[in-house]
Amino acid sequence: MKFNLKYFLITILLFIVEVLIATTFKDLFFVRAYLGDVIVVVLIYYFMLAFFDLKNKTKLIVGIFIFSVIVEVLQYFKIADVLNLKPGSIAAVVVGNSFSWIDILCYAVGCVILYLVELKSSIIGRPT
């Protein structure tokens, strides 16, 4: 475990963007419906790198995608209701409430973007 301030600040910035998407840009359908799901996997990626010095970032990206799909499948089974989470609560918002194949596609797009950024940085020989 090793704290990385740069990645932590990126995480905070991405979190603020996600909050703005959920609150301010909620009327912009594309941003709310798709861009937020692409960004959330990037947020998780940088959050993990802020606290863990991981050498194999490709495994991290795959793990984040699997985690995202699991959360989405749990939404299909109404996990928020099963856990008796109050609608609108922070926990219910984080867990989500509706399954969508499009969300899984958005998570995949975010992970592909992360992979391409990682690939590019490894080619030019500097860490992301």
Structure summarized in a few sentences:
The chain has six helices and no strands. It is an all-alpha fold and 128 residues long.
How would the blueprint of this fold be written?
Elements: H1 5-23, H2 29-51, H3 57-76, H4 79-82, H5 90-95, H6 101-123
Helix pairs in contact: 1-2, 2-3, 2-6, 3-6
Structure description:
The structure is a single chain. With 128 residues, the protein is mainly alpha-helical. It has one domain (5-123). The protein contains six helices and no strands. It has helices spanning 5-23, 29-51, 57-76, 79-82, 90-95, 101-123. Helix 2 packs across helix 3 (57-76), helix 2 (29-51) crosses helix 6 and helix 3 (57-76) runs antiparallel to helix 6. It is globular, with a radius of gyration of 15 Å. The mean pLDDT is 91.
Summed up, the helix count is 6
The total beta strand count reads 0
Main sheet characteristics: none
Low-confidence stretches: none
Question: How confident is the prediction overall: mean pLDDT?
Answer: 91
Q: What is the ordering of alpha helices and beta strands?
A: HHHHHH
- Helix and strand content put the structural class at mainly alpha
Q: Into how many domains do the coordinates divide?
A: 1
Share in helix? over 70%
Which properties best describe this structure?
about 130 residues; mainly alpha; 6 helices; globular
